[in-house]
Specification:
Layout (H helix, E strand, L loop, with lengths): L1 E2 L5 E2 L2 H14 L4 H19 L5 E6 L3 H15 L3 E6 L8 H12 L3 E4 L10 E5 L11 H13 L3 E4 L21 E5 L9 H6 L2 E5 L5 H4 L6 E3 L2 H4 L17 E5 L6 H13 L4 E6 L4 H7 L4 E4 L3 H4 L8 E4 L7 H10 L6 E3 L1 H9 L11 E3 L3 H8 L3 H6 L1 H12 L2 E4 L5 E3 L6 E3 L12 H14 L4 H23 L10 H12 L1
Parallel strand pairs: 3-4, 3-6, 4-5, 6-7, 7-8, 8-9, 10-19, 11-12, 11-14, 12-13, 14-15, 15-16, 16-17
Antiparallel strand pairs: 1-9, 2-10, 17-18, 18-19
Length: 503
């Protein structure tokens, strides 16, 4: 068994099933051999994480995931651990390997009984082997009762392969899902463990290839990848000894309507922090003083119309559109004027909302731009509901790319980044719940733009920017704690992280 660190290639369920088939053919595994290996792996993890283990409650569905649970129960009985199996589903539909695993339990005198919602879960550890990678998103009534029973027990939970109720390919749940303390996943990691609700429910992740060889795994078509800051940091622009500010790029942030000036200031600060040689802020005149007090290195310009913005647009080499932009006529004027340029753009917040309305920006597919929507903004851009976006974040990214021909950064737990329809979607493995606060997205926009200003291509800038931004937030809560973190707090950690990674 290998603990999951950054196993970068993520595979969908169909691909994993194909790999299992190949392994059985080429590596002389039987289906039961794989099941037994999985059960052994889960049992080893149980004894390592929850020692001393004296009582085990194993919830088994009728699929192969349930078979893994039966193997765990069998091994527990062999180790003189008290074990109770709760069975769900139709035994008549069990595969041969699952029936064989169940027979091991019966031979070991394990008490296997149909699940009843009044079962006693007062102590011990729970093993969740109800629903595996074949789960399609619909939790039947008795399974839902079992999941509710598991969650309400407040006992430690180990989920086999993924928490029951989570869709392996998307990370979505429909109604209910197990909240695990540990998840042991097999063959390959699944995309749904790293984004959406799945990322919040899986607890500590452990990965076991089940001895399937790399030569077989390398035949797989990768559906998604985990990004690695260690790999991406090599794309950080090098600074020569004789460099001057005009060689390090010039960002312009456009935004800050009445009442939202702080967003544009935060984005501008992030541009500077990432190394942009020059940063201009075009904002409402009343925000200029606040900007200069907060960060005098920003060239803050008060503009009252698109006409006043126009002469400023000849200086920058990248634009940030949207932080605090608002939805007023002033907002639309500035956006329209910015869109008259051919500059690369990072587009966020209300700039996305104005684009979604379809009035101001007509040419949607011939631009060099990065979109950084949260699920609500993504929903408006696609004309669908937020719940539809969250039910399949990967599909939402693909649809956004098709419609807008942009590098897409879909923010949220397990931020997704994609620069092309033919490429695997990338997932950011860093970040924490303390980031759910106003201004975090504004800083991300500035981080990405600061990289583009220095010559990093749009997709790489989006990938590296997301990793830097989220990793800096992780550093911040390590030092400051997770309560009360505000967006501006991570700026010094961004600087510290860059210096640490590049030293």
């Amino acid at each position: 068994m290998s603990h999951y660190l950054l196993q970068q290639s993520l595979l969908d369920t169909k691909t994993i099933q194909n790999i299992e088939h190949l392994a059985c053919q080429e590596a002389d595994f039987s289906r039961f051999d794989l099941m037994y290996k999985a059960g052994r792996s889960a049992f080893d993890e149980l004894t390592e994480n929850f020692a001393p283990l004296t009582l085990l409650h194993v919830f088994c569905g009728s699929g192969n995931n349930g078979g893994d649970g039966y193997v765990v129960a069998h091994l527990a009985a062999q180790a003189d651990i008290a074990v109770q199996v709760y069975e769900l589903g139709d035994k008549a539909k069990m595969s041969q390997q699952t029936l064989k695993a169940r027979a091991l339990c019966i031979d070991a005198k394990v008490n296997c009984q149909p699940f009843n919602s009044i079962c006693c879960l007062a102590e011990g550890v729970i093993v969740d082997s109800l629903l595996g990678v074949g789960f399609d998103g619909t939790v039947r009534d008795n399974y839902a009762e079992a999941i509710e029973c598991i969650n309400s027990s407040l006992l430690p939970v180990l989920s086999i392969d993924l928490p029951s109720g989570v869709v392996a390919n998307t990370g979505a749940i429909h109604d209910i899902a197990v909240k695990a303390d540990v998840t042991v996943t097999f063959v390959a990691a699944k995309p749904g463990l790293f984004t959406g609700r799945g990322s919040a429910l899986c607890g500590e992740l452990v990965y076991d290839s089940l001895d399937i060889t790399e030569s077989i795994l390398h035949q797989a078509l990768v559906s998604a990848r985990l990004m690695s800051l260690e790999d991406l940091i090599d794309y950080m622009p090098q600074v020569e000894a004789d460099v001057h500010k005009n060689q390090r790029g010039h960002c312009m942030v456009i935004g800050g309507d009445h009442g939202t000036g702080g967003a544009s200031i935060l984005a501008s600060q992030a541009c500077l922090t990432l190394g942009s040689g020059l940063t201009t802020l075009a904002t409402r005149p009343e925000h200029v003083s606040a900007c200069l007090v907060r960060q005098p290195e920003i060239m803050a310009c008060g503009v009252v119309s698109g006409q006043e913005l126009e002469p400023l647009l000849g200086k920058p080499n990248v634009l940030v559109l949207g932080p605090g932009l608002g939805m007023s006529s002033w907002s639309e004027q500035l956006l329209q004027k910015a869109m008259s340029t051919n500059l690369p753009m990072v587009v966020d917040a209300d700039a996305l909302n104005i684009i979604a309305q379809g009035r101001v920006v007509k040419d949607l597919t011939s631009r060099s731009w990065v979109f950084t929507p949260h699920p609500g903004e993504a929903a408006r851009l696609l004309g669908i509901s937020v719940s539809e976006v969250e039910q399949d974040r990967f599909a939402a990214v693909r649809k956004l790319q098709e419609k807008y021909n942009a590098v897409i950064v879909l923010k949220g737990a397990g931020t997704l980044v994609s620069g092309g329809l033919s490429q695997p979607i990338n997932i950011c493995p860093y970040g924490n719940p303390a980031m759910a606060t106003a201004g975090m997205g504004d800083i991300l926009s500035g981080v990405i733009a600061g990289l583009i200003a220095q010559g990093v291509d749009l997709q790489t800038a989006a990938e590296l920017g997301c990793c830097l931004h989220s990793a800096a937030a992780d550093m911040a809560i390590d030092e400051m704690g997770s309560r009360g973190l505000v967006a501006g707090d991570i700026l010094p950690f961004l600087s510290a992280l860059l210096n640490d990674e590049l030293s």
